[in-house]
Amino acid sequence: MQRLANIITEIADLPACEALARSLATGPRQQRVAPVPNAARVPLVAALSLHSRTPLLYVTLNADAALRAADDLRQWLGPDAVLYYPASDAMPYEHMSPGDEVIAQRLRVLQLLATDLQPPVILVAPLKALLQPTLSRAELASASMTLQRDAVLNQERLLRTLVARGYRPTSAVTAPGEINRRGGIVDLWPSADDRPLRIEFFGDEIESLRRFDPATQRSDQRLDAASISPPHEIPLWNREQALAWIESLDCTDLRREAQAEWEAALERLRAGERFEGRAFYAPFFRAPVGPASPTLLDHLPPECLVLLSEAHMLALHASELAQHAEAQRFKLIEQHELPAAFPRPYLNWDESGLDQVRAAYRLVDLSHNEEASALAPPVFGAADHFGGQFRRLISDIVTRLRAGERVVAITAQAARLQELVSEELHGAPTPAAFVAIHGMIEAGWRLPSANLTLYTDSEIFGIRQRRPLAERRRKSRHGEDRAAFLRGLKVGDYVVHIEHGIAIYDGLIRRTVGEIEREYLVLRYAAGDKIYVPVDQIDRVTRYIGAGDSSPTLTRLGTQDWERAKRKARAAVQDLAQDLLALYAQRQTKRGHAFNPDNEWQRELEGSFPYIETEDQLRVLAEVKTDMEHDVPMDRLICGDVGFGKTEVALRAAFKAVQDGKQVALLVPTTVLAQQHFETFKQRMAAFPVKVEMLSRFRSAKEQDVIMRELLLGRVDIIIGTHRLLSKDVIFKDLGLVIVDEEQRFGVRHKERLKQLRAEVDVLTLTATPIPRTLHMAMAGIRDLSVIDTPPEDRIPVKTYVTPYDETLIREAILRELERNGQVYFVHNRVQSIYHVANHLRNLVPEANIGVGHGQLNERELEQVMIDFFEGRHDVLVCTTIIESGLDVSSANTMIIDDATNFGLAQLYQLRGRVGRSANRAYAYLFYKGDRAMTEEAQQRLEAIQEATELGAGFRVAMRDLEIRGAGNLLGAEQSGHIAAVGFDLYSRLLEQAVQQLKQRVDAAQHSSATPPPPPAAPIINEKVLVSPLVTLDLPLTAYLPSDYIPDEALRLGVYQRMVGSEELTEVRALRQELQDRFGNPPLPALHLLTWLQIKALALQAGVTSVTTSNEEFIIRLPILDTEARERLRRRYGRDPNVKVGPQFIRLNRRSVGEQWSEKVMGVLEVLAAS
């Protein structure tokens, strides 16, 4: 972005800007600057920063304006020159804690200000952030510490200090503010840091300091020193003062429930617990709020410029915030919810230090008010707007260039714009005269004194692109795997052992058999019978998921019950596999259109994407393009969480098809979603000769007739619509690609039509309904499947509350969203009472403009309601689940669901995904009727949605949903009984094997041009290949993970699971390094377990079936020992009387090899593996 920085330098070098900077630095400490257009205000701030010897602070009216300013400033000056200081999004007197990201970012800014920041640096903060007290400079310094490698530090004292300052102990550190100790290793995540810290002690000496990845828990960066900041802004070390103050309050006037809550919170504060809403009590830990209360201003260096965007508007807004807060305080006191003497948690305008200078900083008002005394800035003018009329824009640019002016365009369509200007000029303009830069700036302007005009997408297309916030903490995120799923296993859960059947998991136990001590899973069967499963056979055990929500019958050991159930399931999957293969075979024999590789326009369109693609998006896009460039019709399903970028993949695929002259149909389940996709596709393809149209009930009959005629004539390239597109009267000239969004939402008749299309054209299906990974594997190769489970970089998890219906909370939630210029969905899924609910909300929150949307409105009414909501004319949309599929309103960041017990888990997850699609923290409130008993299933659903808070949790939700309501509806009623009998995991593995074997037969038959033979009548399932390749090991090793090495049982179980899955020596070595890194030096039993794994890996590589021990010898068995292998063994061990080689075995004398037996056994296995 050097070219953008050059523009700022040019503005800074203007005589008017230099004079303004001098006046601000040397004149009175409080000054005004004459009006500057809104679009030019941020560039002016950037230019002034180049003249400043200290950081600048730019204060905006609200968070939205602050985020936009910070985004633009990063474009102008680079990401390292901008720091964003957010406000806590909790309302005053609200029992809510600010998000971890907000705390971390505020502390990070304070920590950086304590260092010697080198200008240019601009701090951006909304007004509200400066009205919220924080730690003073002295408090921050005393609560921070610096650790040095090789320093001596008492480990116990360090832990006590950090816990007293608010770090919370956990089994594994995965979030800011957490701490964990395992022997001589201490993990913690300072809130101001991007990544957690691992401290390894040798006694009381710090042996090493390392950063580690919170997802893999592996360290990857060594440090010589590290700073540890406090985990939040509440000075918890003032606990005695806080408790004394709280206890002195008169709470006798509180109603009984409020008194009970108050007492419970007091007990938790005494115990030093962290709990939701602890920030509510923060004022008690500080001195009473007043002019001396510390805020960001107290951390600024001397002579710092504080630039206020509209000081008089800031004062008015501060007054409004204070009035709202006081009204809420009065209401809570009146309702006997709050003690009358509760301290005020915020500063007012007069106390903020923004109305007059009380410290060493300088106040500057960037105002719209004309005043004689105001300082003169450079004169900016407004840029012209073109509203998507590209030809008019090109004409304007060329006219200006020929008149000797300079033009800069900052746009997502930079390459295409440069190309069109060059065509119009019959040659490329010089970079000094015209340049198109790929980027996103809020708005453009003219600067006559520099003979310069700047255009952005706001002027070109009439849209304002938003770039994701660059401050966001980077996290490694991975999809749910089977080991992670097993880690959630709890005592009392139902499990399935592949050989013994359904049991109850009773925990881990250590047992000694002979002289060998190992750890076992205890499984309890019918009649109290128990089986002890060695941890090296943990892959034979899976969690039970049935077909419904009833508990399964435990298997009776010593009977044929389990074998009978498995036989029936094998036969059932055989039938299902044949059905799946029929469509596969039909596709393989058809020949479709092989699309050409990407051209320059394709690269230009993809370059205009306003966000950074995730690795998953790029991988999935490559898979889709590979399919399209092949002549077999594509049938790919893209499965990904809501908001993870499936639409962008579809858009690029559609554009690729159009480049080959083919037409594209995008089929969506609702008219609202059709409208939204239509707008998105039109906007992204505006710079290219691509005609996008929509066919839905939002179009009149006459409009539909015109569109269908143009479709038939080939004048429409991309058509977007509902099931109307599947009607027989919709005829294409040359259809090449069908994209289906949420196919499961369509009816049987529509699905049959789609099935016909699949055999003829490329089909791409999108779904946000999570599909269990085990089922993905079962379908592998039949229905090509791509998964996007990495969230966009700037997404923050949605904060979810499950609570009885509470009108006070509803009002607070809506007002908080309005205060940050956001919007609210209120989901009420009964049309007959929806208007009553909307009227009730209007009375409850008269400040909000409320609209109503549901599927029974006529087309025009529904369209208008949705457009009004998109364009911000409605603050709250009271609606049914019509918003469930794909609706994307980035300013809607609060979701309220009325009577949430009436929704399924996957549906709740989908609904919640409609919010949190921007850089702002989003909230979801799931209300249930507190006066009615909930069913156990409903309670489980609400617990599960509250637990699934991290991004990309969709697959865990899918598995949890299967647990709650069973897997029967996933594969049809006829399969339900078999799923119930053997469990979903084993059923999926049986299906996977049946599908793969039949697929090989179909492929082989087609390859030889023969007719595929009928599938065999008898089941072909081989049970042994359903688990890891089998090697029997009976070794004299006490091998397990001691509980004092990995104390957390669930974590230990997960490590065992990964160990058993390790089948390569490289994996075993990596596991050893990981154990050393995460838990310290492995004790002897853990080292023995690693030896066990090495022997297993070598045995697998060598094709060995068993390595066993008797009193006299070790015996290595193989199916057959070939001549070459025997010769190699004789060359190496021919003269060793302790090694005997037979046709199917190798025997080693146990006494002679002694304590070094494992090395000898591995040596033999290495020779076998090499051959």
Short précis:
With 1171 residues, the chain is an alpha/beta fold. Helices cover 40% and strands 18% of the residues.
Unreliable runs, pLDDT <50, ≥5 residues? 467-485, 965-970, 1012-1021
CATH homology group of the largest domain: P-loop containing nucleotide triphosphate hydrolases
Count of helix runs = 39
As for the CATH topology of the largest domain, it is Rossmann fold
The radius of gyration computed from the alpha-carbon positions, rounded to a whole number of angstroms, is 34 Å
DSSP E strands, number? 42
Mean pLDDT: 84
As laid out across the biggest beta sheet, the strand order is: 27-28-26-29-30-25-31
CATH class of the largest domain: Alpha Beta
Identify the CATH architecture of the largest domain: 3-Layer(aba) Sandwich
Helix content: 25-40%
**Which assembly state applies to the chains in this document?**
single chain
* Measured distance between first and last alpha carbons: 57 Å
Shape: globular
Q: Number of folding domains?
A: 6
Strand content range: 15-25%
Largest sheet: 7 strands, parallel
Descriptive tags:
18% strand; Rossmann fold; 7-stranded parallel β-sheet; 42 strands; 39 helices; Penicillin-binding protein 1b fold; 1171 residues; alpha/beta; single chain; 6-stranded parallel β-sheet; 6 domains
Question: How would you describe what is shown here?
Answer:
The structure is a single chain. A seven-stranded parallel β-sheet has the order 27-28-26-29-30-25-31, sandwiched between helices. It has a six-stranded parallel β-sheet with strand order 1-14-13-2-4-3, with helices on both faces. A six-stranded mixed β-sheet has the order 6-7-8-9-10-11, sandwiched between helices. It has six domains: 2-137 and 281-366, P-loop containing nucleotide triphosphate hydrolases (Rossmann fold), CATH 3.40.50.300; 145-228, Penicillin-binding protein 1b domain (Penicillin-binding protein 1b fold); 386-460, no CATH class; 591-784, Rossmann fold; 799-950, P-loop containing nucleotide triphosphate hydrolases (Rossmann fold), CATH 3.40.50; 1032-1170, Aspartate Aminotransferase, domain 1. Helix 17 packs parallel to helix 33 (984-1007), helix 18 runs antiparallel to helix 20 and helix 36 runs parallel beside helix 39 (1157-1170). It is 40% helix and 18% strand. The protein is globular. With 1171 residues, it is of the alpha/beta class. It contains 39 helices and 42 strands. Strand 8 (185-188) and strand 9 form a beta hairpin. Mean pLDDT is 84; it is low at 467-485, 965-970 and 1012-1021. Residues 627-788 form the Helicase ATP-binding domain. Residues 809-963 form the Helicase C-terminal domain. Pfam families: CarD_TRCF_RID (PF02559), DEAD (PF00270), Helicase_C (PF00271), TRCF (PF03461), UvrB_inter (PF17757). It is found in: Cytoplasm. Its EC number is 3.6.4.-.
